């Protein structure tokens, strides 16, 4: 088995930052009126700016594959070119189409010769799952290097056009139709962007991050669905997929919009997070004392204090001075968030040899959690 190092990190955030006052200009008004949920959600998540693959005129500037392509290109230079990549592993929750896979579409844009590709599906954990595939491939000497990515183009699922038909249908039933909170909620949470890392079997450059281990935990065996798209949640907690609905209902019920069971999220996301964290600590014999930088992907600052308190109550308190977050500046980019966060930490110049970093990514879809423990070389 080979050691595996993150030797380069890059990101691509499309267009200029969009502040809270500009959001509805980009995403569009529903039923011609401002959202009631917007101010509530923004006050809770405390996001100040985010990025959309939409210009000031409302025109789409990039699809997901193009965002990912740009992040990979930003990773490469004269010392490591596109043609040097041996494995491309891509994670996203918002691929541009059902088929072909996201990684295949990115590879098609890169046009960098024959190589192995892997696509990881899911929500936020898909970026970490893509990383783990590359990590295991390099570690087991299947390849000498791998490029892994996380990306999202969530704006394509939040625009007015996604909900127009449902709003029109609701107008037939009531005078002042309002989109259900579980759909409107996520319009003010999500952002677009992509991140990429280069994995190699030896350290290079000024800062290399050795991946000591990665772990993943799923609670789907005991938890019903919380975040979903492409279906509708029924009264018994099960999901009815879009393919079981007549085509004329896809738009009327906004079946392809991203939705979230907010009550379920609030009740269980932190509880299961700390349970999985304690399992990872126990398995690898570490505690918060063996961590210098803690990078948690949190979807909203609403959860920040609660997460801290839950860890403290369970005896695994993480001191605030170890936390590193950038949610306020870049928003919640789903599968790309942890890549963009790590890129900013490395670029900050703070890291020194021997520092230890814990990456933590939760996924509320059906409550999954992934971890990576890194050391600076």
Automatic annotation (TrEMBL):
The keyword Acyltransferase applies. This is Beta-ketoacyl-ACP synthase III. One of its GO terms (molecular function) is acyltransferase activity. One of its GO terms (biological process) is secondary metabolite biosynthetic process. InterPro entries: ACP_syn_III_C, Thiolase-like. The lineage of its organism: Bacteria, Pseudomonadati, Bacteroidota, Flavobacteriia, Flavobacteriales. It comes from Pelagihabitans pacificus. Residues 282-360 form the Beta-ketoacyl-[acyl-carrier-protein] synthase III C-terminal domain. The keyword Transferase applies. Signal peptide: none annotated. Keywords: Acyltransferase, Transferase.
